[in-house]
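input
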Amino acid sequence: MYWQTSRFQIDLSRPRVMGIVNVTPDSFSDGGRFATGDAAIAHCEQLLKDGADLLDIGGESTRPGAPVVSVEEELARVIPVLRFAVTLGVPVSVDTYKPAVMQAALDLGADIINDVWALRWQGDQRDVIGAQVVKTHPTCGVCLMHMHREPQTMQMAPMDGDVVAQVMHFLQQTAQQLEGLGVDSKRICLDPGIGFGKTVQQNFALLARQAELLPLGYPILAGWSRKSSLGAVAQASAANAGGLDVQERLVPSVTAALLAVQNGAGIVRVHDVKQTVQALRVLAATQAAS
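output
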C-alpha cells in the first residue's frame, strides 16, 4: 500500500514516523518550546536527523478547551516554517482545519492536509469547506480524523456506545464522500482520533480493535503520542491519581506506537521520533527473524 501526496508516493510497506512540529505557544505537549520560526525550523532538522519520515506542522492547538486562532495568526505561525520544511526532501503535512490555511499551504508545496475536522469545518464562510480545497488539488494527500463534538467541548461529554463501530462508520462515510467529489482513494488516510471526545476506555478499545478499520482499504494514522489516556493508565500508584505528567509519557507513547503498528497502522504521529524509530527497528528485526 502507498499514500499518494503532492510530491511523494509514500511507501507503507514499512511503518512511517511522522514528526510533530507544533508552532504554537499553548501546545499541551511541549509548552510552546517551538513557537518561534527559528526554533521550529531547527526542530524540523532535528526530527529528520532522528529518523522522521514525514513532518507535520501545526499552528493551532487542538487540545481540549484550546482557544480558536484566527486564520491570519495561524498563517503567520505556519508559513515561515513550511517554506523551509518543503526544501528538506520529505513529505510535509500541515495540521489545520481552515480552508484558507489549507489553500495557502498547498500553494507553497505542502504534501498533506491533516484535518481533525475531516474537512467538515465551515466557520463564517459557509460556502467554503476543506473538501473543496482538497478536491481542486490534483494529488495532495489528506488525513481524515474522527472527532466527537469540537476541541472546546469534546471532553465535556465523550461518546457513548460502541466507539469502534461509530468511528468506522464516520470514517468510511467521510472518505467515500470525498471520493465522490473525485478525490482518488490512494490520497486518503484515516485517523481514529485518539483523545478527541473519547474516554480512556474508548481510546484503548480503538487501539485493541484498530485492525477492524483495515478492511476499509485506507492507510491508518495513529496519534497516541503523550496523550492523557497514556498518563492515566501508566501512573505509578493510586496516590498519583492525576496520571503521569506530559513529559513522563515517553515510554507509554512509544509502547502505544508499537502496538498501533502491530495492529495495522501505517503511520504513527509522534513527538519522540528517535525513541519511536529505535523501537520500530527492534520490532522489524524481530519480525524478520520469526
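quick obs: The beta strands are 2-4, 9-11, 16-22, 54-58, 92-95, 112-115, 141-145, 188-191, 221-222, 267-270.
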